[in-house]
Every structure is written in C-alpha cells, then in structure tokens.
C-alpha cells in the first residue's frame, strides 16, 4: 500500500501539477494515519490561500421580489402571488459575488469534514475555523456527483482545479451512508484498485510530461492493422489507447501501467506473468509498428508489492521490459527510478 506521504506526490502529478515546496512542508510537518487526513490538509492549505488572495467571484442567478424590473420577470410566481396589482414582480438576475459553484462546494466539503469522526479533533477544528472565514451569502453545496461533474465542465484554472480534484476524491472516499448524527463516514481509497489504477496511470504519464524533455509524452489511439468485408465491421473492433507513449526522433516507448498487487500470478504452483497484460502490450506494439519509423519497444510497469521484478525480453522483434516501481521508498528514489526507466 502506498505510504500516505507519497500520496501527495502521486496526486499532484496525477492532477498535472508540480508539488509546491511550501505546501509540501506543511504536509510533511504532520503525521497522517489515514488518506482522508492528507486530503483535508491539502484542502485547508489551498482554501486558506484562496481566502488570503480573495475568493474568486462569479455571476450567480438570484431570484427576488422587486418593485422595479431587473433581469427577467418570472411570470408564474409573479401571477400566483398577485404581485402586479401591487407594482411588484419576481425577477431573476445575475449578481456578481462569491457565491460561485466552487466556493459553495468548498464550504459544503469543509462542513462535512468539520463533523466527521474519521479526522483527529485538531483537523476538524481547523476545518470549522477555515469555514468560518467564508463571507456571508455563500450557500454550502453538498458533495454530489452531478455537482462535481458540472464544475469539471468549467475547466477551472490551476489552484482552483486542484481543489476541485481534492473535493472529488473526498467524495469518492465517502461511504454511501451516514451515522445517526448525520456524519459522513469514509474509507481508505488506497484499497480501491480501480481508483488507484487511474491515479497511478495519470501520475506516471504526467510525471514524464513535467520532468523530462527528451520525449514527447501522450496517450494515443492505435489503429488496428485489419481488414474486413464490410467497413462497418471495423468499427466493432475494441479501441487500443495507450496509457503512456514516449516518442523521440530515435526511439518510441509504449508504457502500460498496471496497478496490481503483483506482476505475477500462480499457475500450477509456478509464478507466471499475467498473460492478458502481456498480450495487450504486444498487440499495441504489433499494430503500432506500421505507423512509426523509429525503433519501438514496450514496458509493463507495476507498483512493487509482493515481489520486485525487472525482466527483459524480445517478443516478435520488439524489446519488452516488465518492471516494478517501489512506491514505498522515499520520493527521490521513486523519481530517480522513473527517469532511469526511460534512459
């Protein structure tokens, strides 16, 4: 399981953001026992920074009973309340202020964290203290999938986007039920293999985007080298989308990440590589070969858990490496191992 301190780096890179020294110092000064504590600290650090700079403003629709027209008139409530005879109308208009969707989400998330027993008392108290610094008029929004999806469509800039991702992960770790007093319960998201697989994949890809300049880094769709009697039958073939492709003028690497407890599985009392993973990578290499003129090779990358491995093969003429990355070591070692992998 990934140590909580290293989760900070994984999340920063997964969310396409370089770790910040000041933020890391505040994180490193504390001993975390649960990932929720780390997420809360990141949310507090980022929210305090926003409050110091001034919360971002935006236009929010407001409905109000007025004596003069403003914005658009809402006929149904105006007529239902018989307001026209009194020279009044219900109007909806946009007002610039801090009651934006992001600020509402931050307020709602801090409310939840200020109540949960899964956090130590000092962190709960700090969540309530930071929440109390929000200006009046901000209506806290609950953590919901629909609300998070709507905010992601806004494509918020750097720091705000990072806080949105923190709130999104807090939502993903919340259990569907609450206790008798309405407090939300949370689980350790490191045990969620599907969630961690996505984080691990994005972490590796964005690490290479940010930390080296030799290769162009992307996730790409590989076309099948296939024919069919009918053109529409080709559309039924599954998509081949690489986790990470690294390409230079001299070399191209297709790197596939697999977040599994081990790179091997038992078969008749012997350890074997996981065949679907190897078949998938080999299919990528075979079909990509016709679309590139540079030497092509493949890497299967697993987080080290039960066994460390560094295996090298030549499969169908392609160099293939199966290797594990130790996520339990200090961060400098992780960064060094990743850079050595593509040397």
Index terms:
single chain; 343 residues; alpha+beta; Trna Endonuclease, Chain: A, domain 1; 3 domains; 6-stranded mixed sheet; 3-stranded antiparallel sheet; 41% helix; McrC; McrC_bac; 5-methylcytosine-specific restriction endonuclease system specificity protein McrC
Radius of gyration: 26 Å
Globally, the shape reads: globular
Count every helix, treating DSSP H or I runs of 4 or more residues as helices.
12
Strand residue content:
15-25%
* Regions with little confidence, pLDDT below 50 for 5+ residues: none
Biggest beta-sheet profile: 6 strands, mixed
**CATH architecture annotation of the largest domain:** 3-Layer(aba) Sandwich
Class per helix and strand makeup = alpha+beta
Can you summarize this structure?
With 343 residues, the chain is an alpha+beta fold. It has helices spanning 4-14, 21-28, 35-53, 75-80, 101-113, 121-132, 145-152, 158-173, 193-211, 231-234, 275-288, 331-341, and strands spanning 58-66, 72-73, 89-97, 174-178, 184-186, 216-218, 221-222, 240-241, 244-247, 252-257, 264-267, 270-273, 296-303, 310-315, 318-325.
What secondary-structure arrangement, pairings included, does this model have?
Layout: H1 4-14, H2 21-28, H3 35-53, E1 58-66, E2 72-73, H4 75-80, E3 89-97, H5 101-113, H6 121-132, H7 145-152, H8 158-173, E4 174-178, E5 184-186, H9 193-211, E6 216-218, E7 221-222, H10 231-234, E8 240-241, E9 244-247, E10 252-257, E11 264-267, E12 270-273, H11 275-288, E13 296-303, E14 310-315, E15 318-325, H12 331-341
Parallel strand pairs: 10-13, 13-15
Antiparallel strand pairs: 1-3, 2-3, 4-5, 6-9, 7-8, 9-10, 11-12, 14-15
Protein name: 5-methylcytosine-specific restriction endonuclease system specificity protein McrC
GO biological process, one term: DNA restriction-modification system
Pfam families: McrBC (PF10117)
